[in-house]
Each structure stands twice: as structure tokens, then as C-alpha cells.
Design a protein that fits this description.
Blueprint: H1 2-18, H2 42-50, H3 52-55, H4 74-85, H5 92-98, H6 103-114, H7 130-142, H8 145-149, H9 167-179, H10 188-192, H11 198-209
Helix pairs in contact: 1-4, 1-6, 2-6, 4-5, 4-6, 7-11, 9-11
Length: 220
Amino acid sequence: MRGLAGFALCAVILLALASPAGAQQAKPRSGKPASPSPAPNPYAQRFATLCAACHGANGRSDMPNTPALSGQHMFYAITQLFLFREGRRNNEAMTAVAKGMSDADMQGFANVIGALPPVPAPPPATPPDPARMKKGAELARQHKCVFCHGDNFAGGQQVPRIAGQREDYLQMSLRGFKSGQRPGYTMAMGEALSQVTPDELDTLAYYAARFPGAVAAEGK
């Protein structure tokens, strides 16, 4: 079943690559009327109707344990939607949303998410603890977080952006990966966290949520 699911996800991603949604419109030749403006993206409205209540209209969630989608990558988004649709990630609300999605629906929503710019987190009630931030940076290097997520924690492709993500969601995700309750598309996270203690997981979440320059002009 895992092989079939992997093949299906590859097919979904190839569909996304082949989509002309991100292609630039050809410029009209001089002397000819310009083509009409493209129709509004229907998935942007569907995102506003279906997703914004939990994840925020701009992708910055205010709900506990609900991830910020702003600044995430299209390939990561479509992968997670696939895992929810196939029942490989366990979240009652997201499974209910994704189970009826076609491949084209997943692509449409992922394109909308991938176009959301990063949104800074609200200012913390207290300034970041320098000692804890230093320890978080050391743990990120020690456990090679930067190898996949990048020096700026911006991620890329199927690797999520974690800079500025909600701390409670990061804690929940890291604990889930370590315990095996949160499956990934690969075993990379479970293996990377196998030697990390619970306290260190919380420190990594603290550090990533307050990552310096989390919304810098590094692009997505």
C-alpha cells in the first residue's frame, strides 16, 4: 500500500508541475487587442470559505495547535493534503476536508497556499530568552535540522518552512514525529529526532517559533 500511495503522490506532483497556473501570459503582439484578464482563481475563494476560519485569511492561524500556512511551499502543501486524504495523517477536521478532494482540488488549494507570503508572528509577551535561543541554535546544528530546513528555516519543496511557525504546533509535531504518531512521507523526521529528549524538542520548538528574521526577504 505504501508503494501505491507513493506512486499516487508522485502522480499528483507531476500534475502540479504540468499545470499552467503559474505560467506567464504571453504578451500580445503590437496592433492586436490585449487578451481578456484571466478569471479569478476559484480556489482562492474556496480557501477563504473553507480554510480561513482555522488557518486565517492570510494563512496566519490564531487557533491553538493549528499551523500557519503563510510562507509554506506548494509541494509541501499538496503532500500533506494527500496524506490527509489517504488517511495517513490523523486529524479529524483535516480528514473531513480532504477526503473528498480530487487530485485537481489538492493542486488548486496547494497553489493558493504556495502563493501566500510569510506573515510574522505576533510579538511575544516577553522577549526571547537568550540562553534558550542559543541552546536551540546548538540543537538545530547538532541534529542537522538546517540540512533539510535550511539555515534560515525557510524549507523548500516538500520540506516545510518552520521559521515563525506556531510554537504549540511545532511542539505537537515534533513529539508526534518522535513517538511515531505523526507519520511523514518519509522516515526522515523520526530518525532525526530519535536521540532528542522531550525537553530538547520543546527548546527546538521555542527556537524555531522565534527564529531571528523569520520573515526576511529570503523568499519561499
